Structures are given as structure tokens and as C-alpha cells.
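Not sure how to ask, but would you mind making up any protein sequence you like and the C-alpha cells describing how it folds?
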Amino acid sequence: MSSCRLLLSQLKLWTSGGNKWKRGLNKGTGWSGKAFLSTSSCPKVCIVGSGPAGFYTAQHLIKARQDVEVDIYERLPVPFGLVRFGVAPDHPEVKNVINTFTQTAKHPRCSFYGNINVGKDVTISELQQAYHAVVLSYGAEGNRRMGIPGEDLPGVYSAKDFVGWYNGLPSCRELNPDLSCETAVILGQGNVALDVARILLSPLDILKKTDITQPALEALAESRVQKVLIVGRRGPMQVACTIKELREMVNLPGTRPEMLAADFEGIPEALKDVARPRKRLTELLLKTALEAPGDKELERRKNATKVWGFRFYRSPTEILSEPNLNRTSGIRLAVNRLEGSGDGAQAVLTGEVEDVSCGLVISSIGYRSLPIDSTVPFDPHRAIVPNSLGRVPQAAGLYCSGWLKTGPTGVIATTMNNSFDTARSLLEDMESGTLDVSPARTGSQVVSRLLEERGVKPVTFSDWEKIDSLETKRGDACGKPREKLLTVEEMLTAART
């Protein structure tokens, strides 16, 4: 057995009664006990970003090879990325994956270092010198712009920022969206668009039992939004949401659907040759839009006080403003027709336009990754790091996973497979010798010295557990799963208490 594997087997024995030994060193030093026992001959991998892509990549590396050590660096003091800040508050079951990520973070060969802004506190080049491999998994924190007049008016928000606001992302804390209008328009018809629509229309009694932030809950209690239109440039057979999300909208208490029959012309006939998942989704849309409801559903709709509906074949061309007032009063939509069929159908302008009165516009047309460092290749058009199965060309030892690798597509399961693929590429390179792991690398030890010199103190996973404990206690006090800390300063105070 190699000295590295022998040392790691001893470390497993020392930590087998839990992670008390490791946490004790964490508490005393701010860095994992691994830094004291690690031998420089072990392959060392650094992962930038602690969302699903980062944790799934780490999980596969640790399970597949018994001598790899993985350090995860995160800009915020808290881990889990979009699982914490992107998943809808009323979907707590989706957040159960945090249990798996926690097991990975507590593994003797994995360490979490939060409150470290890679690219600023430490450079990619410095990480490459400290580790045998660097995996970029920092996701997509930018917004795709619509590129139309008026999109910067008050009353226009990105779905990313709106979701970050009600989920407690520190950078979105001051968003303070204006919910004083009657009609809201959401541009885009994916799951995030439906999450936003559901949050805008859900009864407060439902939201009060979730981990939605208190400021968002208070704002929604005062909201005057009664109608939400979910707009897409193509038709019912190209809608991007899943059937689960659509069913939730159809059954949302206190609401009723209103759609245009003309949007569904020819759709029943086109369903004959469609794959089953798409067929079931479209059939539910057709039933909701066109079929006469039964007595029970009819009664429910009669008692509904809020309305939602899809609007198909429409593209935004301008955000309208009130005369002499710098605020949103409506949106101008171009009417489209489709050329082609299925997922490849293209929206083509007909020359017709229509104006919709609204005071709130939320753009849910996609997230966008941003470059992290001038030394890292970046495709500004596709907003990804160019790669082949996660390998970054002409950059030995540099890899990427998650949305930075593929663009913002899919669900958490998609990201899992994407990240496992990157981990496999990295492991194959180790085995083949393409990635040379023979030179000694000290990993977090050298990075810790750099950060100490720069006055940056990391947050370890045991520090995060203090934040977690405080948030759950605050939640218990008001009947919620947790009440999130909303600023980095509050998080750091809790972590260091």
C-alpha cells in the first residue's frame, strides 16, 4: 500500500466514530485536519463552486479513487448553491439532496472552504500551482438580457434576481420588487417561470410553512397581483416546463386558468406522433385550456380570486412606460407563427403586435455564466468554458462541470450526470498519465498561507453547521423549516460565534 493510501486508511479509522477529530482541528485552526496529515503525494483536486455540480463532481472523485483529496471553494459562507438559492420554497423535497452533499463534505478526503472569492482572494493560477487539477463548477450567476427597449425600467426584473430575493441570496436582498400592480407578465415558460408564477399567486398559508424569507413573505402579503401571464415565443408543444410543475399550477388553490383557444389550433391532431412525455404534458395543457371542467373543478374555479394563463406564439419587443412616469405600464408583444415542428420549430414574426397592460415584468429567459479569470478560456457567445467532456482545451489540469460546462439547462439530475462525466474524464486522465499527479502538491496548505497573508478567513463545514443550526432554530420559532440569514455579515458572525 502506498504511503498516501496507508495514511488515508489510518485517517478513516481515526474519524470512524464521527468527525469529532476533524472538527476539533477545524475549530482550532479554521482549516481541515486533512491539512495536517495529508501527504503531498496524494492526488489533489480543487473544485470552485459548492452547488450541485461541485458536490456531485467531488462525490464521484472520492468514491471512484481511494487516494484523491478534494477541496471545495465557495464565494459565500454557505454551501449548496442553487439548491439553497434556486429551488422554490414550496419544493422542500428537492432540497433533500443536501443530505447527500453533507455526507460528501464530511468525508475525510473532502474539505469545504467558504467565504473565498476565487479570482479575487486567490487566483486560478495559484490554485493550479497548489493542486494537480482544478474543476470550475461555479454555475451561472449572470442574466440573459432581452435586448429590447425599456428592459431597464423600474418594474422589470430577471427571474434569477426575483428567485434570489425570495430565497435569501445576499446579493438580491435589496431587490424590493414592486408588487402593487394587478397584472404580472413572465417571459419564458420553463420551470423557473412557473416557480415565480406560483410564488406570486400562492396563498400565504402555504408560503408561511416554507423557508421563504420573511421580507418576501411580508411583501407578498401586501401584493396586489391578481393575474399572471406566462409568455412564450413558440407553441404548446414546445413549452419547456415539466408536467409536475404544470400540474401544480393547474391545482394551485385560489386560482383558475385562462388561456386563448386560438393558441391550441391544430395541436390535438399534431399529438399523434409525439413522444409520450411531451404528449402527456401537452394533453394536460389542452385539457386545462379547452375542456369544460367537472362540477367540483367548476366550483373551485368560480371561487378563485386569482388568474393565470400561458400565452403562446409571442415575443417581447418593448417594455412600455406610463406617460411622464419612469415605470412599467405594459409590454408590447410580437405575434409569431411556427415554421417546422417539434422541438426544432422556429418562431417567425407575422408583423402583428399586441400590447398587454401590466406593472410587473419578470424575464425568465435563462441564466448566463460569467468569466472568472482572464487566464481561463471563455466563450462569450455561448457563455460557457469551452470543453470536451469537461476537459478545457490547451489548459492541462483544468476542467469544468455543471452549467458552466453546458449552459443553464436541465434539472438537478441532469447536473449530476454532467458532473459525473467530468469526474470520469479527470480520473481517466490520471490513470492514463495525461494528468501528471506525480509532482508533490500541498493543496490547501499553500492556499491557506496565501489567504492568511491577504486577511481572508475561510468558513469551514463545521462553521456552516453553526449557521445551519441558528437558521433552523429561528425557523422553529415561527413554524418554518428555517429562517435564513440574509447577509454575509450575519452568516460570518454566526459561523464564528
